[in-house]
Amino acid sequence: MTRVDFYVLEDASADTHDRMLCRVVEKAWQQGHRIFVRCADEAAARAFDELLWRFQDVSFVPHALAGAADGAAPVVIGTAAPATSAAEVLVNLAPGVPPVLEHYARVVESAGYDEATRNAARQRYRLYQERGLVLNTHKLKR
């Protein structure tokens, strides 16, 4: 059964929020997982791709944009989660619940950083709950 992990970052801004998600992606990759990062649109995908290149000076997370990925990248960033995927972890940066969950052992969600993103996260939480998925909450400090 798919496990859903919500990450709550206290006093978050858009920048600290996005960097926290980069750290989550990095940790999942370091643990040997393949990851698909689902973004709301192409601009958001390109922005997250760029942030993964520079979020820390001392780390490197091998990644590629969907379509540019040749299958070798352990982290793929795109707008639509593939119907079949080699990834075990889905990081959802889009506002809605991903349509395909059963292929992933774990879904990573953010609790947001402002009123709009927090409300969207609450709605996703309720939808996951209604589906009977295992939900976990991780409270992080900056």
Structure in words:
This protein has one domain: DNA polymerase III subunit chi (Rossmann fold, 3-Layer(aba) Sandwich), CATH 3.40.50.10110. It is built from three helices and seven strands, in the order βαβαββββαβ. The protein is an alpha/beta fold. The chain has a seven-stranded parallel beta sheet, sandwiched between helices. The mean pLDDT is 90.
**CATH 2nd-level architecture:** 3-Layer(aba) Sandwich
Helical coverage, percent range: 25-40%
State the low-pLDDT regions, or none: none
Count of individual domains = 1
Which structural class should the secondary elements be placed in?
Answer: alpha/beta
Mean pLDDT, to the nearest integer, reads 90
CATH topology: Rossmann fold
Read across the widest sheet, the strand sequence of neighbours is 3-4-2-5-6-1-7
Largest sheet, described in full?
7 strands, parallel
Beta-strand share of residues? 15-25%
Terminal CA distance reads 31 Å
Number of strands: 7
User: How many helices does DSSP assign?
Assistant: 3
Q: What shape does the CA trace take?
A: globular
List the helices and strands and how they pair.
Blueprint lengths: L2 E7 L4 H17 L4 E4 L3 H13 L8 E3 L9 E4 L10 E4 L13 E5 L4 H16 L3 E7 L2
Parallel strand pairs: 1-6, 1-7, 2-4, 2-5, 3-4, 5-6
